[in-house]
Design a protein that fits this description.
The chain has 125 residues and is α+β, with helices and mostly antiparallel strands. It has 2 helices and 6 strands.
């Protein structure tokens, strides 16, 4: 069992953010209700909640700071350059284009339509 099993990416405009992630990741997000608060809007990335979680690490980078907004989510990709190429058209921006992280693969750092920085990670491409 991996240590992280769920993440929230906070947004201001749900429709804009949903369109961004669906376009960039070429996927479909589904509505998810909060049974305790009907005013909460959620869109879920597909997951069966059993087979896997998400890996993680403590990282120090020049262009980030700890504290609010200091966490980074990385989406797994076959080749992160493919999703990176969709970012601008979807309403985001590329912060750092695809680069090697040695034997751990490749990463692209992007800002989504809401200003959140997220990573794209591929192992072999």
């Amino acid at each position: 069992m991996r240590k992280i099993g769920w993440f929230d990416i906070y947004v201001e405009d749900m429709e804009r953010a949903q369109a961004f992630y669906e376009t960039m990741l070429d996927t479909t997000l589904s509505s998810m209700d909060d049974p305790n608060d009907p005013t909460v809007q959620m869109r879920a990335f597909g997951d069966d909640f059993i087979s896997h979680g998400a890996g993680g690490a403590l990282v120090r980078l020049e262009y980030t700071q700890p504290g609010p907004g200091g966490s980074m989510v990385y989406f797994s990709c076959d080749d992160c350059a493919v999703e990176e190429a969709r970012v601008s058209a979807a309403g985001g921006s590329v912060v750092r284009p695809k680069f090697s992280i040695g034997s751990h693969g490749f990463v692209s750092i992007i800002a989504d339509s809401e200003g959140n920085m997220v990573g794209l990670h591929s192992v072999t491409q």
